[in-house]
Structure formats: structure tokens, C-alpha cells
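re: ur question from yesterday

yeah so i grabbed the chain u mentioned. its 114 aa long if i counted rite. heres the sequnce exactly as i have it in my notes:
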Amino acid sequence: MIIYCGVGDCIHNECNYCETETVEINKNGQCIAMGKVRPEVIKFAKLMEKVLRRHDYKGGWKNCTGNFLLAKIQEECNELTRAMKSNSRKDIIDECADLANICMMIADIWSSQN
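ran it thru and got these C-alpha cells back, copy pasting raw so excuse formatting
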């Protein structure tokens, strides 16, 4: 079942679906709720955003090259490996968010290319 939020072209930042629904914008620019987002996904996405904000001073990723981001993935994989070997719960979770953010950056850059 598809539910329209009724807030025009909102991206669910201003309606009651903002943290509980998967969202898609249709070809008319209308926001569509596609179903519940898993709580684990919401929790992890919030952590990813927290980590991104911590690094806002770096200026973002829009001008990063693919090679740079691929190197960052390898670097973050190595950091995650070290965190897992040390069995540090906090470090493991943080490194997972770092790695996911780099993957998101690649997906974002490539999805915006024509």
C-alpha cells in the first residue's frame, strides 16, 4: 500500500513519517511512504549522520575522486579490522559508521552523475 503524506514535495522532514517510513519521491515530486524502516537502520543512519557532522569541517565529499574514496574504504576496513581485533564495542560501531559513510559518499556521487 502506498501512502502519500500530503505535504507536497516534502522529504518527510516535516511530517509524521520522518523517522519511521521509507520514503520515495515520485515523478510528480510527491513524497510516498513505502513502509516501515527497521529500527536498526534508523539507529545506524543516525549514527552515520552524527559521524558526518563531526567531520563537517572537512568540507564534504562532493568533490572527492573515486580513487580517493576507494582508498578511504580500504583505510576504514583496516581500522574496522583493528577495532574488531581489540574487541572494543564502541570502536567497532564507530568504524562501521565511518565505512558506511564512505560507501554512501560513493553512491551519492555516482547517483548524481548523468
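noticed a couple things. The first helix runs from residue 39 to 54. also The beta strands are 3-4, 21-25, 31-36.
anyway ttyl
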